[in-house]
């Protein structure tokens, strides 16, 4: 825990996470520090918070945020969802019963130094979402697709000869150890800053031509969401339909998951920050305004607008056996290919 007054003033997200750990019932919420990373003010922790039954033969839902330090809204959305769960555990019998049959992980702040310093990259100038040892064999966007030129340029991958950054390694180790053994697992990694619409992306980020092995399962999940909430405003599609990158952490982890027989589906929520800019262009006077709703009423709206999605994914994870195999697999895969890879 941190008593540094500078952190308390300039880093409310970390203080909020540590306050949750301090006041929560330890019978419900468990916490661990995955690693510490160095900043100018000392060492900052990367926390993993867990709820529910930790047995590895149960389904697992994981919420991740703060991979890019400038995208503070992702961390705030995940914290708001966690706080709601913890409040409900005081009175909600249904939620208490549900947590006996599912495992929940929350990694709300993967890049604390980047968030403290108002940078996309970590303290060494490395973009964590370009840092995994996986390459695209198709043409990527110059620079933005990941490069090894210099840490002074954005989207720097790090040197090819170096191991992954400690933040990337901590995330990958945790997912490998705590998530991949589950028979079914979903991840929602919360980002912001791309387009006007809220988008849900799935791998691959490395290829427009190669669908993932579990394409039919993703299509089935999409159909379930659209049918359950037909008035939602999310665009659900592979990330490769927008741009390709080297070093995507979720591509790397998904490829690792294929060594087993379990189903691991990592999703990325890309919150459309351009709509906030369109409504309030003056927020571009500060760098944070590119990625974060500045007006308080818009911030509150974003904090509540994704709760339905996050709750849906939790219930879909718990009940995966009820919906996953209902449709004809071949027909579903053909429809998914026509939808996303025609």
Protein described:
It is a single chain. Helix content is 37%, strand content 18%. It has helices at 5-10, 12-23, 72-88, 93-98, 112-117, 166-179, 215-228, 249-257, 274-279, 296-305, 307-318, 320-323, 329-340; strands at residues 30-39, 42-52, 60-65, 103-107, 184-192, 198-202, 234-238, 263-271. It has an eight-stranded mixed β-sheet with strand order 1-2-4-3-5-8-6-7, with helices on both faces. Strand 1 and strand 2 (42-52) form a beta hairpin. Helix 7 packs across helix 13 (329-340).
Number-wise, the strands total 8
**Straight-line distance between termini:** 51 Å
Tally the helices: what do you get? Answer: 13
The amount of beta strand, in percent, is 15-25%
> Tell me about the biggest sheet?
8 strands, mixed
- Shape, please? globular
Low-confidence stretches: none
The structure class reads alpha/beta
The level of helicity is 25-40%
Provide keyphrases for this structure.
single chain, 342 residues, alpha/beta, eight-stranded mixed β-sheet, 8 strands, 37% helix, 18% strand
Summarize the structure.
This protein has 342 residues and is of the alpha/beta class. It has 13 helices and eight strands.
Question: Mind sketching the topology for me?
Answer:
Layout: H1 5-10, H2 12-23, E1 30-39, E2 42-52, E3 60-65, H3 72-88, H4 93-98, E4 103-107, H5 112-117, H6 166-179, E5 184-192, E6 198-202, H7 215-228, E7 234-238, H8 249-257, E8 263-271, H9 274-279, H10 296-305, H11 307-318, H12 320-323, H13 329-340
Parallel strand pairs: 3-4, 3-5, 5-8, 6-7
Antiparallel strand pairs: 1-2, 2-4, 6-8
Helix pairs in contact: 2-3, 3-10, 6-8, 7-13
């Amino acid at each position: 825990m941190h008593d540094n007054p500078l952190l308390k003033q300039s880093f409310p997200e970390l203080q909020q996470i540590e306050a949750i750990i301090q006041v929560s019932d330890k019978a419900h919420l468990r916490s661990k520090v995955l690693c510490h990373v160095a900043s100018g003010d000392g060492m900052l922790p990367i926390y993993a918070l867990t709820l529910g039954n930790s047995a590895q033969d149960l389904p697992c839902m994981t919420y991740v945020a703060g991979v890019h330090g400038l995208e503070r809204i992702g961390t705030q959305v995940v914290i708001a969802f966690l706080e709601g769960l913890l409040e409900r555990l005081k009175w909600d019998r249904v939620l208490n019963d549900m947590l006996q049959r599912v495992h929940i992980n929350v990694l709300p702040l993967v890049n604390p130094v980047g968030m403290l310093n108002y940078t996309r990259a970590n303290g060494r100038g490395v973009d964590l979402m370009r840092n995994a040892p996986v390459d695209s064999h198709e043409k990527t966007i110059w620079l933005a697709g990941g490069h090894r030129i210099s840490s002074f340029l954005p989207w720097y991958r790090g040197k090819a000869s170096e191991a992954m950054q400690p933040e990337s390694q901590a995330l990958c180790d945790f997912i490998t150890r705590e998530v991949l053994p589950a028979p079914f697992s979903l991840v929602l990694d919360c980002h912001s800053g791309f387009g006007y619409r809220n988008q849900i992306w799935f791998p691959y980020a490395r290829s427009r031509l190669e669908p993932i092995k579990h394409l039919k399962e993703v299509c089935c999940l999409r159909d379930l969401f659209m049918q359950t909430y037909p008035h939602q405003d999310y665009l659900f599609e592979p990330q490769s339909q927008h741009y390709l990158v080297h070093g995507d952490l979720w591509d790397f982890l998904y490829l690792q998951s294929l060594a087993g027989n379990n189903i691991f589906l990592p999703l990325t929520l890309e919150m459309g920050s351009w709509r906030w800019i369109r409504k309030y262009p003056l927020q571009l006077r500060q760098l944070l305004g590119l990625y974060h709703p500045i007006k308080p009423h818009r911030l509150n709206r974003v904090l509540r607008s994704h709760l339905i999605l996050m709750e849906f994914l939790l219930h879909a994870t718990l009940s995966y056996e009820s919906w996953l195999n209902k449709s004809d697999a071949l027909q579903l895969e053909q429809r998914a290919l026509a939808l996303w890879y025609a």
